[in-house]
Amino acid sequence: MTKINVPTQEQVDQKAQAIFESLNQNLGMVPNLYATIGYSSETLEGYLNYSGNVGASSFSKKQIEAIKLAVSEVNGCEYCTAAHTAIAKMNGFTEEETIAIRKGRVEDLKLSVLIGLAREVADQKGRISDESKETFFSNGFDAKALIDLVAVVNVVSFTNFVHNATKVPVDFPAAPALNDIAA
Prior knowledge:
Helices cover 63% and strands 0% of the residues. By secondary structure, it is mainly α. Helix 4 (61-74) packs across helix 9 (143-166) and helix 5 (78-90) crosses helix 6 (95-103). The mean pLDDT is 96.
């Protein structure tokens, strides 16, 4: 069976090499998943531009991380669950809150509505119920936020699917397994 390996900087084209250098400068590393996406420099460039902008005008960084973490759990992506657990903590969530987000059981009503709809969008491939949509709108979100939510679900689903397809090594601390944690 063909195995996809994480490419080195020398194994990607010049455009991807430049992106890797930028990632190294900004993050101090090139995450394995980004390096793997770098097999296609156009896709890596497009992904980074898209992911860096979606949702930012409707949601806080903390809310965006909650969405990404919830969706990564729905999509069963070990890599992104680990990465977004770490990033969620950098954005102010506790370990316990990251677990609650992954379980879809947060206490904050507005955040609960947000991650609940994100999970539904991911699980139902965008076919959300009228009830869920009305709950979203009645909690202060608008049509722009709905579009932004779908975009954030889309951008994290892309990386979820890339990892699920390639199984490259996870280079973030593992997120706790939910089956090891009491409900």
